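Reviewers of the previous submission asked for a worked example of the structure-prediction workflow described in the proposal, so we include one complete record here. The input consisted solely of the amino acid sequence. No template or homolog information was supplied to the procedure at any stage.
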Amino acid sequence: MKKVLQEHPKAVVIFKDTNTILVPDNTDILKNSPEELQQRLAKGDKFKYVEINLHPGKLKNLPILIPASSCLKFPTGRGAGSLSLSYKVDIEMNVNGEGGLSYVNSASDPNMTLKVAIKYTINLKVTKKASFSGTHTCSTVNGKATRLFYSPGTYEVAANSREYIFDSLKDTMFKDEWNTLQPINYLTESAPIYYCGTEDKMDLKCGSPAVEYTDDNGDDIKSKIMEESNDYYDI
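From that input alone, the workflow returned the following structure tokens.
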């Protein structure tokens, strides 16, 4: 650890034998400049880290259909065929409870520790904000309106955390007992599942470009169509 502090004081350390990850504490190491850290190291100070032990997580899609496009239909009110729907949506998930982890090393992202752990241990990119765009083809009959919906992917993870202290004077490490964190959900950056809805099968909510939803864990999800046309227009 002394070598890490000397050469890369704010580095993330991965223990491959235990598959745990060690992250510098924001109240200690991350608030110091490299010069201040080297001065502390020369004095034999103690340095604080947070160790994360991830449990196997669950990949799943949100159990709701979120509008991704405006509503479209054939202009005459009759006919059948395929319609090309362009979409661009932004989605954000505000996590309830932050997984029980008080560690914060980014004012805009309170769960950076777990995100880093997920990225480096299972090679999955997770986020609390995402954007999706493209074109999708939907079919409709008898002049019924159609609308594109999507269901984004999420990753639910549970973990243990503990404080990890490095005594640079004695060159020794001290570990606290493990604390169990409550499960926490993230959005994944992988492509969502898309669905085509028609007005004879469901309420398309054509006048609603934005959706707000709270899941069973109390997480708030907000989605908004960023590029939209009229609810119905000639094609």
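Residues 19 and 121 are 7 Å apart (CA to CA). We consider this example representative of the routine output the project will generate in years two and three.
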